[in-house]
């Protein structure tokens, strides 16, 4: 069983987000980059399948050399090897084109990607890959079992959960809940040492023409200052919510 | 030409998110002199409500094969019925999943999670969520058609009644188009309001001390017609189901009113709720960071404040 896990390198969840003065891009100064949280759940599930069912786990990231520390962390968590597609991750279509090519070339049985990245918030890549490869696609997964030739996955919907089966090869869009938080792997010394020598192959990108461009970024408008209400007078809160905020 | 909208339904009933998508499509249609056509899969609701938001045509598909959700199959039938250059979808779990496949099948660009009305139609320019609500990205579609997804509760609904008509259409779909097989469905209890659609959300954190204390949260939310939510540790400890967890790694919501009780306001929590229009924070610690991101705050013990607040809401509602 061969598993490809798509890893996006994103600002740490605690990072304060600022943009460059021209508003064209993220101001990366002082920002730590981490594995996109949803991808970390996917990676952990893949490494569990490696430990219990002998899966071979490859991670892939589309990005320039600056993403390599995050990829090494994925190797330290337990991935067998890594592919870096040497290009700026322009948009979801471009990234998916690279992943679809690698998935086809490598003959992977399961492609795991996060349901959504916390930086671009595209929710695009796994669906694009599924469309490009014409594989079954189960998104928003919070449970994944793998059998000989098929998977059984649990998907979170807006109104509950569905248990779904599909035959391999398959694309899984994973999210928090795919493994418990307590199962997330913190790399130990041995993992970190061995990650240094695991293969990290750099490949050049496929062409892909996008018709979308980003004009710029802004910060959301700040909230006005908070109005404090005495704890013994919650009626005042009800009045303000009705008359001032007009939300009840 | 028509702007196509996927009018999502749940067990046959149209979702609020469908009305939002139609409302959004109607702005585009009015500016470009087009009309709005809604596509509905296995609906039982009357089409009248879709006309109310501006859809002048409703194409109904009744198909046993589409009874359960399948991203590829849903994308296929909508791509087949589309004859225009704009497809508008709600950013629900289902529609977000098939949007990329639909874009590929149509040869269109994809722009997801739009938060406000377009700034410009040619080229199409609009704002979308980025950095989990810590940023707003402006994107432009330079040429060709587009698939758009509209974030729930962001643009909202706008009534725009038109004369409409409906048509049941047949589609070409085979077993092999449905690649995923749903073997079990678990619904949240049906009287619960869909968290992402909810206009009011009452949310509890670790300050609530334990699952046995959620009665007051539920009572308040029932009174307000709200959905309930929680912080991540609350879901991780199993006090509440994971489907209620909001934040950067949980659901992102933007209700009109978010009431946070016993939640500290960690940056990862804020990322999922910051775009709520009005935020109320109830916390015993005056230094809790959440107060800095709130509109209204009460410093006090939830176990004292909540019962009093419930009484006041009852008075207000006249119950
Ligand atoms: C990668 C990552 C992702 C994360 N994603 C999320 C996410 O998506 N969503 C999320 O919520 N968190 C997330 N977190 C966790 C986040 O950092 C916080 O730990 C979490 O939000 C804290 O939850 P809390 O506010 O319920 O608990 P606490 O931080 O323990 O706060 C409890 C609050 O209750 C107050 N309190 C105590 N007793 C009372 C009382 N009697 N009455 C009133 N108030 C009282 C306290 O003053 C305190 O402010 C994430 C963390 C990481 C590292
Ligand atoms: N540059 C990238 N390289 C590899 N995988 C990516 C990249 N960007 C996004 N992904 C994957 O696609 C998922 C969804 O990303 P997005 O479509 O940006 O929301 C992420 O969680 C990753 O698994």
Task: Describe it.
The complex is a heterodimer of chains A (248) and B (319). With 248 residues, chain A is of the alpha/beta class. Chain A has six helices and 13 strands. Helix content of chain A is 28%, strand content 29%. The mean pLDDT of chain A is 97. Chain B folds into two domains: 2-177, 3-Layer(aba) Sandwich (Rossmann fold); 200-317, Rossmann fold (3-Layer(aba) Sandwich). Chain B has a seven-stranded parallel beta sheet with strand order 7-11-6-1-4-5-12, sandwiched between helices. Chain B has a five-stranded parallel beta sheet with strand order 15-14-16-17-18. Classes of the chains: A alpha/beta (248), B alpha/beta (319). The complex binds flavin-adenine dinucleotide and adenosine monophosphate (AMP).
Question: How does the SSE layout of this entry go?
Answer:
The complex is a heterodimer of chains A (248) and B (319).
Chain A: E1 2-6, E2 9-11, E3 33-35, H1 37-53, E4 56-62, H2 68-77, E5 81-85, H3 92-106, E6 110-114, H4 125-133, E7 137-146, E8 150-156, E9 160-167, E10 170-174, H5 189-197, E11 200-203, E12 212-218, E13 227-228, H6 234-243
Parallel strand pairs in A: 1-4, 1-6, 4-5, 5-11, 6-10, 7-10
Antiparallel strand pairs in A: 2-3, 7-8, 8-9
Helix pairs in contact in A: 2-5, 3-4
Chain B: E1 2-6, E2 9-10, E3 13-14, H1 16-32, E4 35-41, H2 48-52, E5 57-61, H3 71-81, E6 86-90, H4 93-106, E7 109-114, E8 120-121, E9 124-130, E10 135-141, E11 146-150, E12 165-169, E13 181-187, E14 200-204, H5 214-224, E15 227-230, H6 232-236, E16 257-261, H7 267-273, E17 278-283, E18 296-299, H8 302-317
Parallel strand pairs in B: 1-4, 1-6, 4-5, 5-12, 6-11, 7-11, 14-15, 14-16, 16-17, 17-18
Antiparallel strand pairs in B: 2-3, 8-9, 9-10
Residues 6-8, 36, 38-39, 60-63, 89, 92, 95, 113-114, 116-117, 120-126 of chain A line the site of adenosine monophosphate (AMP).
